[in-house]
Each structure stands twice: as C-alpha cells, then as structure tokens.
Structure to design on (467 residues):
C-alpha cells in the first residue's frame, strides 16, 4: 500500500552546525521544519566525532602539559597516569552538555526531529527510514542538505585493522600508543600531532606537500613547523605512502621515497568526503563529485533551485563557524530575506594546534601577487606583560595593512588564545571606509595587561616601518 506523504515546508538533513543554523532560522520565520539526523543524538559529526571532542581533548592535554611544566605542580602531576582513554572520557562530558543544549533548541522552536536515514524519492519527496525499518514519506517545498562529511578512506588502506585509524575511529582508541604515524598534514593531522605529542607519544607526520597548511601565511606555517619539531614531532614533507602492512602490535608504512616507518599505530587524515551516497540524490536530479560534494551558487542553491546544500558537503572552507552561517543564509533566501552573504566576506580560520593559529584576510603571498603596496606590523607575545604572566612566550600577532590608506588587509595570529584574539581585528576589518584602518589600534586604549594589547603594539610597529 502506498504511503501518503506528510506535507511540510522544509526538510533539513543533518543537525550539525549548517543544518542547525538553517532549521532555527526557518522555524523562527514561521516555516514548518522537519530535521532528519542519522545519528541517535543531535549535533552531527561536529559534536560527536569532530570539532567538540578534538578540541576538548586538546584542552585537557594542554592542562596536563602545563602542570607538568609548572615548578609548583610538576612533581605531583608526574605521579598521575594520564592516558588517552581517560582524556576521551573527560571529553564525553562536554559532548553530553552540547547534545542536551541543542536538543532543547529544537524543542523550543517546535522543530520535529526524526532520527534515521533520509533519501530522495523525487525532487520534492523524501523518505526517512528509522532504525526500526519504518519509513515516513514527506512532501516538501524546499530541502536544505547538511549531511556533513566523513574521513576519506583510501581503498588500499586496511582500516579494519585495530591499529589503523581515521579521525573518527581514533576517538575510540582504547590505549595510548608508544608511537603514532599520522598520514596527512592538513588541519586535522596537525591538530592530532600536537595532541598526541603533548601526551608523550612519539609522532611522525607525513605530508605530501612542500609545507604545512599552505593556505596560511608562510611566516605562520614556518613557525608551526619549527615548534612542532621543537616539541619532538618528526615532519616528513613531500612524502606519499605506497603500502601499509599491519602486524599484531605494529604497522609498517612504505613510502614512495623508499623509506620504511614502523609505529604502534597509524592515523589517516587525508581529507573528507561528503555524506551524499545514502541520499540517493540522482532521484532529485543532482550529482556529486568524486569526494561526495555538491556544487552550489552564492545563495547555496544546487542546480535544482529549491534544494540547498551547506557545510562540509559543499567543500571549502569546511569550518563549523562557516557552516552555521551558510545554513542561516540558505534559510534567509528561502524566507525571501537573503542578502546577508555580503556581510561575511572574510571568515576567520581557527586551527587548534599547539600553539594555536587563527587568520583572517589575505596573506603576504597573495598581496604580493596582487601588487598591493602593503606593510607589516608585528607584536611578539614574549614582549607582552600578560603573556609573560601566563608563561606564554611563544607566539605573535601580525597585521598586514595598505601603506597608503592604512586599511587592514590581513590578520595572522600564532600562539595562546589566537582564535579569540583574531576577533578583535575582525570587527575592525568589517567596518566600512576609513573606520577600517591601523589607526583604530593606535588610538584605542586597551586594558593592561591583556593579550589584546598586541594590536596596539603591532600597529605601532607597522607605522614605524613606513617611510
């Protein structure tokens, strides 16, 4: 017997940042919204296996490292057995709080959440299969796809072996390895290299490129490479893996250069793939690329105009913060508002290595290639009173600005609280005309001692370079 479809205004697939941003705005705009989440709890991969657990891990490891380095607590801390599974248990508490908070968002805004697998049955029809095998059919005016992504798994790598991990399965690691080889030196690979090395694990980082994180300012990437090596991470650039041979208690990697690396675990972090297979998007007239990603226009519409896609499934920048905004912008277009996309021309990056990295705007390389007359202002953290008080002597704030107009063109921060510090500059860069200049930082009184004072120091340093 054919099931009669239930009519709704919008179906949102995926309760990660992109889906949540879309669902909340649509609900507040008076639309009847259905949220479909494949996991048994809301929050998406970001909450359960991505941003939240990895950053909670990093924070816990940072606390342990700080205590071990402190003359007051080092003796006591060395007697405490801190293992990777114990750190994962601490992160689980944060996840539970996030899930509870986000579940309440849907309840308060009267968004029905269906846990199961969504798939297209037509351009305006979707089926949701529950864990019990039951199927609910919906007929909808619009669809917002935010299914997220998963780690890309090269087919030749034996991920079924217990010592071979990806960035999802590493969160179920039941022991602390002696050595770990990380394949892929993108954001995830670099973050986990910092986490495991600070836990005392011997880490080797395999990078297929010339440098780490080539989308960042070169001075920042050089600083990151230096400090990773200084901590004991072995960096291997311009290397690719040809063969992975696991044994009972170790894994051997054979590199294209002829090198052989043996370690007690391997973590693959070589990119991510969009979760589009189960959606059966062909029935809606859509097609994904080889990484499972969908093409969208500036309004986040796919080639089928009433179907939108946001978040990891559309590719770069694949940031939780950007995904949330994309979801809100897509919802705004559905509601007939729209236009807000122009308000976010620069999205800050936050990379939670140790030391932390955040950047906004253009790099020196980009400005040079564009023939923009720019100058640089630096503030080294070791010269700031607040950093000295906290023992944070590593790091810097770097301002790029136009030599003639003094307009801020780029902000690059490396060190403690970098992802927080960058937002001060972001607020000024977003201002129109003359409000966005280096002189704001020169003429503003900052609390003392603070890390924010780095802006005044960097601005004065930049002005001194002008002739």
């Amino acid at each position: 017997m054919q099931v009669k479809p239930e009519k709704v205004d919008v179906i949102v697939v995926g309760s990660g940042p992109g889906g949540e941003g879309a669902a909340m705005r649509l609900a507040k705009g008076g639309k009847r919204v259905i949220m479909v989440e494949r996991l048994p709890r809301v929050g998406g991969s970001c909450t359960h296996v991505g941003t939240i657990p990895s950053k909670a891990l990093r924070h816990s490891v940072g606390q342990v490292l700080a205590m071990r380095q402190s003359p007051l607590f080092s003796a006591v801390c060395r007697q405490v057995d801190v293992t990777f599974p114990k750190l994962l248990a601490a992160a689980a508490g944060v996840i539970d709080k996030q899930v509870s908070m986000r579940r309440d968002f849907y309840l308060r805004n009267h968004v029905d959440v269906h846990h199961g697998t969504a798939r297209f049955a037509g351009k305006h029809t979707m089926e949701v299969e529950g864990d019990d095998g039951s199927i609910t059919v919906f007929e909808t005016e619009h669809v917002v796809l935010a299914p997220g992504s998963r780690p890309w798994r090269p087919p030749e790598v034996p991920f079924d072996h217990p010592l071979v991990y990806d960035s999802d399965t590493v969160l179920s690691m039941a022991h602390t390895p002696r050595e770990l080889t990380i394949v892929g030196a993108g954001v995830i690979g670099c973050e986990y290299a910092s986490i495991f090395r600070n836990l005392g694990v011997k880490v080797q980082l395999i990078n297929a490129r010339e440098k780490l994180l080539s989308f960042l300012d070169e001075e920042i990437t050089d600083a990151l490479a230096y400090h990773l090596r200084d901590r004991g991470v072995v960096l291997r650039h311009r290397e690719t893996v040809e063969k992975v041979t696991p044994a009972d208690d170790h894994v051997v990697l054979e590199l294209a250069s002829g090198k052989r690396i043996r370690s007690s675990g391997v973590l693959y972090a070589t990119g991510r793939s969009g979760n589009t297979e189960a959606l059966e998007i062909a029935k809606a007239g859509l097609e994904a690329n080889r990484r499972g990603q969908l093409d969208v226009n500036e309004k986040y519409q796919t080639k089928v105009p009433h179907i939108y896609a946001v978040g990891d499934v559309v590719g770069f920048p694949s940031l939780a913060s950007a995904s949330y905004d994309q979801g809100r912008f897509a919802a705004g277009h559905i509601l007939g508002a729209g236009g807000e996309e122009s308000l976010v021309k620069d999205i800050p990056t936050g990379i939670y290595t140790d030391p932390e990295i955040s950047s906004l705007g253009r790099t020196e390389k980009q400005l040079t290639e564009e023939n923009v007359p720019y100058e640089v202002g630096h503030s080294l953290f070791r010269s700031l009173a607040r950093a000295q008080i906290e023992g944070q002597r590593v790091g810097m704030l770097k301002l790029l600005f136009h030599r003639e107009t003094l307009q801020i063109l780029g902000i690059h921060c490396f060190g403690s609280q970098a992802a927080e510090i960058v937002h001060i500059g972001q607020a000024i860069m977003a201002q129109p005309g003359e409000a966005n200049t280096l002189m704001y930082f020169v003429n503003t009184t900052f609390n003392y001692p603070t890390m924010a004072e780095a802006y005044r120091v960097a601005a004065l340093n930049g002005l001194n370079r002008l002739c």
